[in-house]
Amino acid sequence: MSNSEQVPPPASPGDSPSAIAPGGAYRAPETQPPGKQGPYREVTISSIVFGIVVGALLNASITYSGLKIGFTVGGSAVAAVLGWGVLRGILRKGTIVENNIGQTIASSVNTSNSGVIFTVPVLFLLGLQSTWGWTDWVWLAAACAAGAILGVAFIIPTRKQMIELDRLRFPTGTAVATVLRSPGEGIQKSLVLVVGILVAMVVTFLVQVPQLNKVFGGLDWPTLSQLGIPILGDETIDLTIPMAAALGDFWRPELTFVWAIAPFALGAGFITGRPGLVVLAGGILAYWVITPIAFANDWVAFGTSAEAAAAVVRGAMNRPLGIGMLLGGALVGLLLALPAMRGAFSSSGSSSKSGRGREEMPMWVLAIAIPAAFAVLFFAARSTITDGSMGQAALIAGMGTAWMWFAGIVIAQCTGMTDWSPISGIALVTVLICMFLTDMQVIPAVMIGAAVCVAMTLCADMMQDLKTGHLVGAKPIRQQIVEMSVVWIGPAIALLVVYLIAQNNLTTVGVPFGDGTDVPAAQAVALQAVIESMRGGDAPIHLYGMGAAIGVVLSLSGLGGLGVLVGLSMYLPLMYLLPYGLGCLIQMFCIAVKGRGWTERWGLPFAAGLLVGEGMVGVVVAGVAFIFGGAA
Q: Which stretches are transmembrane (predicted)?
């Protein structure tokens, strides 16, 4: 398909008046369930409650998985599939545009998690949260909520230009519209998704039994390692010995072949498909190429055993190389987005001259929301600056607000054209600028950086949702109102999940994220490396520089985000990359054997269920551990 959207079929004399929506968007004639008469359903209590509940569950689950694999996956299609199962299958009332409102709310509540997990964990990694009280967390949540509101408010005026005039594709939004137009299949898909959730919940519960035994000292539930299967551990499957036996002299003792029992990674890989093999390739490069070379040439500390080589090389070489690749790739991605800026400014200027009537949210609402959100950002920034300087608070709040508008429009433009956006690069630049403006103070810089990241993700999400609405005949103003009303919920949920996981890890292993835990928080680790370098820490600058150069070259290859993805996989644990890569291969196999239609119809909902189910159990266990005092 080309970048422009498909032309809708022309109206025929038999079409109902509601089949053609304002602005020429096509609305499927069958929007009410068979046999249902009455007022046309769009914004309803059912859709609002459904959207908030599903959005909260998706937010918590994807925050959990994103902290583990370093990136997030969208939840709009999952919400749309579940919407048919609940609104049409259970309540027997759902219409296409009512389900669209439900998925709009769900995605707006969910999407802000990437902005939080890319930035906030660095406060834990640097130990800065130890002096915080509950008011500091409230201000951080308020700043992120203000960013969410500003992101939505800034992007609304560009809708008509980007969607109706420029006709940008917005691939995710177009795909969700396809789900919404298939209510019959949607109900069946929702059942498959629920099966995937249940399978993942059972598997993850078994993996979490050791943690629960520690939390509740009186429990002595059997763990997976007690089943007597040699390769099976409590949380992993160790295939190193069978692989060594099979390959003989071709296998080196410093190689590892341990798989995490991680349904979310398998599901995320299946959802990504062939493009995700880049992530697996980065892991193979790090663990099966660089590690043996480093060990064979004695580039590791004297006395390092072959069994310990993978962990030692990861910390000494692969991690800084990967961080450098991520940073170099992210900054190149930002530079490659420069051509989109011209189109973004054109969209902003042209849309301001367009007559929008009742299709768009009234400008007076935006005129109130934007100053109010800026005020919250200002007071939040002031609360974290060491001397409470109003000047510095106003400076970084103003810079952050202007950057949200500028970068948010660019991100939306990039997403509309390619479905990829350089959020990590913009987050890095934001934090660095704020550190310079506040005399190298980390906390206010990270707070503004988090708010900007949340705003950017919501800019892209809002336009994807509006594209979906345009294709199914929804009224833009209704989507805009509901998203503006609930968008502040998401950051609070993501922050709570980050806090619970960090506190649980601090209690059990003494480290919040990163090495020593099963939560790498890869993007935040990269940000930590940059901050420590700026503050004069002892950093392997030569490895960062080498990695950055490689990241630049990869990102200039024409494949969006290649440097970032390979960099991430260089220092993520291999045990998560292996099931992720297997998921990619399974999707490719299903397409080859059963066809793309079957794979998207049945495979993707099940894979999404695996991702969501593990996240739900993981968050619940972290919450239980926090409430009941953690582990021994």
A: 43-63, 69-91, 112-131, 137-157, 191-209, 277-295, 321-340, 361-381, 393-412, 419-438, 444-460, 481-502, 543-567, 574-594, 606-628
Average pLDDT over residues 189-218: 90
What number of other Cβ atoms are within 10 A of residue 479's Cβ?
27
Q: Which amino acid belongs to residue 303?
A: G
Using the Cα atoms of residue 377, residue 328, residue 294 and residue 278 in order, give the sign of their dihedral.
Answer: positive
Q: Which residue is it, tokens 């998207």?
A: 600
Percent of the chain beyond pLDDT 70?
A: 87
Instruction: For tokens 């763990």, name the residue.
Output: 223
Report the alpha-carbon distance of residue 186 to residue 545 in Å, rounded.
Answer: 49
Q: Is residue 159 part of a domain?
A: yes
90 in a structural domain? yes
pLDDT level of residue 352 (50, 70, 90 thresholds): very low
Backbone φ and ψ of 57, nearest 5°: -65, -45
**How many other β-carbons are positioned within 10 Å of the β-carbon of residue 565?**
25
Rounded Cα gap, residues 414 and 417, in angstroms: 5
Q: Which amino acid is at 269?
A: G
SS3 32: coil
Does 1 have pLDDT greater than 60?
no
d(CA 261, CA 540): 33
Tell which residue, 522, 512, 511, 509, has the closest CA to residue 577. 522
Q: How many other C-beta atoms are found inside a 10 Å radius of the C-beta of residue 276?
A: 23
Q: Alpha-carbon distance 143 to 444, whole Å?
A: 10
Answer yes or no: are the C-beta atoms of 297 and 244 closer than 8 Å: no
Query: 260 phi and psi, to 5 degrees?
Result: -75, 145
The enclosing H or E element of 188 equals: helix 183-215
Q: What's the number of CA atoms in the CB half-sphere (13 Å) around residue 598?
A: 9
Report DSSP letters for 48-70, one per residue: HHHHHHHHHHHHHHHHHHHHHHS
DSSP-based three-state secondary structure for 566: helix
- Print the domain residue range for 110: 41-207+337-353+362-540+595-627
Rounded distance between C-alpha atoms, residue 189 and residue 179, angstroms: 10
Q: What is the pLDDT of residue 420?
A: 65
Instruction: Give Cα separations from 221 to 22, 108, 205, 225 (angstroms).
Output: 60, 39, 11, 12
For the chain, first and last CA: distance in Å? 56
Q: Which two tokens stand for residue 303?
A: 């006395």
Across the range 51-68, mean pLDDT stands at 93
Residues 6+ apart with CB under 8 A from 58: 75, 78, 79, 106, 109, 110, 612
Give the three-state DSSP class for 236.
strand
| Neighbouring C-alpha atoms within 13 Å toward the C-beta of 23 | 26
Contact 240, 306 (CB under 8 A): no
- The rounded distance, in Å, linking the Cα atoms of 325 and 332 is 10
Residue given tokens 């609360």 in the structure block: 383
Number of domains into which the chain is organized: 1
Considering only residues 20 and 34, tell me which one the structure prediction assigns the higher pLDDT.
34
Alpha helices in 226-318 (DSSP H): 240-247, 263-272, 277-284, 291-296, 306-313
pLDDT at 408: 81
Q: Is the separation of the CB atoms in 75 and 493 below 8 Å?
A: no
Residues 334/340/342/343 CA torsion (nearest 10 deg): -150
**SS3 readout for 117-143:** HCCCHHHHHCCHHHHCCHHHHHHHHHH
Do residues 490 and 109 make contact, with C-beta atoms less than 8 angstroms apart? yes
- Residue 20 is predicted with a pLDDT of 37
Looking at the domain assignment, is residue 382 inside a domain? Answer: yes
Q: Is residue 58 part of a domain?
A: yes
